[in-house]
Amino acid sequence: MDYKQKIKDGILSYEREQTLEATRAALDSGLQPLKLLEVITDTLKIVGDGFNCGDLFLPELIYASDCAQVSSAILEKAIKEQGEIISRSGIVVLGTVQGDLHDIGKSIVATLLIANGYQVVDLGTDVPADKMVQAVKNHKADVLGLSALLTTTARAMGNTIKKLEDEGVRSSVKVMIGGGATNVNYAKQIGADAYGETAVDAIAIVKELMS
Amino acid sequence: MTAEGFLRRAKTLEILSEPEVEAIHRGALDVLADTGVRFESKRALRLLKKSGCRVDEELNRVRMPAGLVEECLNQCPSSFRMKGRSPKTDVNIGGNTLYFCPFPGMRTIDLDTWEQRVPTVEDNHQAVKILDKLETISLSASYTPYCELKDVPGVMLLPTSAWSRMKYFSKPSRVGSSMDSHIWEMQMAEVVGMDVFAAMEAAPPLTWYGDAIDCAWACAEKGLPVEVGCGAVMGGTGPATIAGTLVQSMAEMMSGIVLVQLINPGNGILANSFVFAMNMVTGAPAAGGIEVSLFQVAFNQLWRGKYGIPTMIGGSGPSSSEIIDVQLGFEKGIGASLAAVSGASVINMHGGIHVELTYHPVQSIIDNEIAGMLGRYVEGILVDHDTLALDVIREVGPIPGNFLRSKHTINWWKKEHHMPKVSDRASYHEWIRSGKKSIFENAKAKMDTMLAEYEQDPPLSDQQNEDLDRILEEARNYYKSKDLL
Question: In this structure, which of A88, B41, B72, B318 has its CB flanked by the most CB atoms within 10 Å?
């Protein structure tokens, strides 16, 4: 039984249960969880490429990523139990700022980052500045990504950056912003390190910020 | 590529009340019995006389009894099948299916200067290849896409146009009805194993010339469908009023249908509306006017609604604009939309630009977008347990839930949402980055890709190609023998 192929097929056919069952069966058969995680990462790369070239669309991208994450969770647990370490490209904390409930754009960024090998801590929407700062500290984040869709809430981004400074962690984390209410000038004005126009841009930005 | 067409689930728009429908119907019968119709064909006059019509042999005028007309209308099937070059390009015209067809133009236009140019035979081949691969195109009219070709004498235009389509277009075609062209076109269609249908278009007001009759006769004898068309210009060759032109056009078409049904009872009929209003500034037909759409909506209600006869809406294909611009877009878009929602079986639209004078394949690619949208519209809204989505609404709940993460979305979005091919759907930033391209640039690029990737499907054998060339040569010799070349 080619479990690796089954895991790949499960993700590419958007079958969460099939992916999960194949992952469990693969572990039971004695396959190395680190190797299985590589299968998932490689498959998500295929999905990401499909999205970037216009063959796949947001629902497929997001759902394939969800299928992958469910399986990744049990693999990560197995890897930790074996005392091994997962190499990550970096840790990114994401959140939509306080007062703003827009979730989808930020979720797409999260999905694309995960597909590209980053560990993502998604704090959700309407996230107060102190919660953002706490997450940056707790997870030792490399990058903090802030999203705002409303001109009325964009100013909360500036408050979050100020809070990072007040707490003395601004120099340890890069800040990127995005969303309909923001632009490159606003990023400069509030002292962010980068501005992303689209969700796909976020990948290159995180890579550059961490280099 | 598919010839499945679009299956209509959406209710159709009606514009006339029942008494209004009846008044137009009775008006047409009255014209047929009282004024009569001129038939320029001795054999048609003989057949009509034998069947109970009053024939004035001096004026070639035929007056038809209402009973005969209604009997013949009742004989017309509500749908008929036509063979394409392979089963996947067969069509079943009528019933609840909507198909699209290109709209011809005499010349092509230069996309930089917008000036007209006589297309070459190679231009014609290219435009045909594009049509063959557009998924919303299921059949073609005659003398389409171009009705003038460089270095091709006028009398050879129709056979040459058919020869080009038979080589590079796998879907059923209409044959032309001028100078015996149907003889060669029908032979070519037999070579490639495809069905054709006749063009029998009235010369308004109230006249049938021999060419149209001969073409219809030849097809009906073989059981091939006949497109019976009206083409009055309201205020010129038809009354200025929409109701009046409906009456006159119905009378013209009914008289043609009577003849076809007498030749072959039960023969397939496609009722074609090619009516325009007169542009009272220039005297030319004013394409794209809303009065044309009013006519077409009523036309669909009368023919498809009252008589159950499939309709072809030929008059929503062109615009009055000289260029591919906003006016062209809204005139064609509104015209085709109203034709689709009011129940057309076939809409002739793709590629036509200015009245019937210009055509460009780039426009056919843009029209493919309109057709895709309208096709999706007529398919309507599916309401069942799964589409009502109660389970997924419960699962997702209020914010922060969203439906992008649901399997339900994966399962349904492509069936429910129409994805355009060349329309701009980029984000602002992506649009800037990719060179600020409009649908026009996208369609031009798409044309290049489609031509580079074109493959004949199914391919023609060497023998078929030779036979097509031979028949074209025979047509040339025929016209030479008649001193027409």
Answer: B318
Domain B6-14+74-379, CATH: 3.20.20.480
A46's CB contacts (< 8 A; 6+ apart) are A12
B413 in contact with A, Cβ within 8 Å: yes
Task: Answer for the pair B444, B171: CB distance below 8 angstroms, yes or no.
Answer: no
Name the residue of chain B whose CA is nearest to A102's CA.
Answer: B400
CB contact (8 A) between residue B404 and residue A125:
no
For B312, counting Cβ atoms within 10 Å of its Cβ (0-12 exposed, 13-18 middle, 19+ buried), the class is: buried
Please give the Cα distance from B132 to B202 (Å, whole number).
Answer: 29
- Rounded Cα distance between A24 and A33, Å, is 10
A60 touches chain B (CB under 8 A): yes
Task: Return the number of other C-beta atoms located less than 10 Å from residue B198's C-beta.
Answer: 32
Model ipTM? 0.84
Partner residue opposite B430 with nearest CB, options A103, A107, A198: A198
Q: Which residues of A touch B398 (CB under 8 A)?
A: none
Structure confidence by residue, pLDDT tens digits, B72-89: 999 999 999 999 999 999
Q: Does B385 touch chain A (CB under 8 A)?
A: no
B399 close contact with A: CB closer than 8 A: yes
Length of chain A: 211
Residue A38 has which token pair? Answer: 């590589």
DSSP 8-state secondary structure symbol assigned to residue B241: S
Cβ–Cβ gap B400/A197 under 8 Å: no
**A154 neighbors A191 (Cβ within 8 angstroms):** no
Judged by a CB distance cut-off of 8 A, whether residue B394 touches chain A is no
Cβ contacts (< 8 Å) between B402 and chain A: which residues? Answer: 103-104, 107
For residues B226 and B218, what is the distance between their CA atoms, to the nearest angstrom? 10
Q: Specify the pLDDT at position A105.
A: 86
B155's CB contacts (< 8 A; 6+ apart) are B179, B479, B484, B485
Residue A136 CA: distances (Å) to CA of A90, A94, A175, B127, B323: 12, 10, 11, 60, 58
Q: How confident is the model at residue A1 (pLDDT cuts 50, 70, 90)?
A: low
Report DSSP letters for B284-328, one per residue: SEETT-HHHHHHHHHHHIIIIIIS---EEEGGGS-BS-SSSSHHH
Query: Rounded to the nearest 10 degrees, how much is the dihedral formed by the CA atoms of B359, B365, B366, B372?
Result: 130
Torsion of CA B136, B140, B145, B146, to 10 degrees: -170
- B405 touching chain A per CB within 8 A: yes
Q: Is the pLDDT of residue B395 over 80?
A: yes
Facing residue for B410 by CB, picked from A14, A107, A124: A14
Domains of chain B, residue spans: 6-14+74-379, 385-416
Give the DSSP letter of residue B416: H
Q: Are A198 and B429 a contacting pair at CB < 8 A?
A: yes
pLDDT of residue B376: 97
**A103 Cβ under 8 Å from any chain B Cβ:** yes
Q: How confident is the model at residue B3 (pLDDT cuts 50, 70, 90)?
A: low
CA distance B273 to B256: 14
- Which residues of B are less than 8 Å from A104 in CB distance? 402, 404
What per-residue confidence (pLDDT) applies to B1?
A: 37
Asked whether the beta carbons of B53 and B64 are under 8 A apart, the reply is yes
Hey, are the CB atoms on A57 and B410 less than 8 Å from each other?
A: no
pLDDT digits (tens, 9 = 90+) for B87-101: 999 999 999 999 999
Contact A202, A145 (CB under 8 A): yes
Residue B2 has pLDDT above 60, yes or no: no
Across the interface, do A59 and B402 touch by the CB < 8 Å criterion?
no
Q: Which helix (H) or strand (E) holds A146?
A: strand A143-147
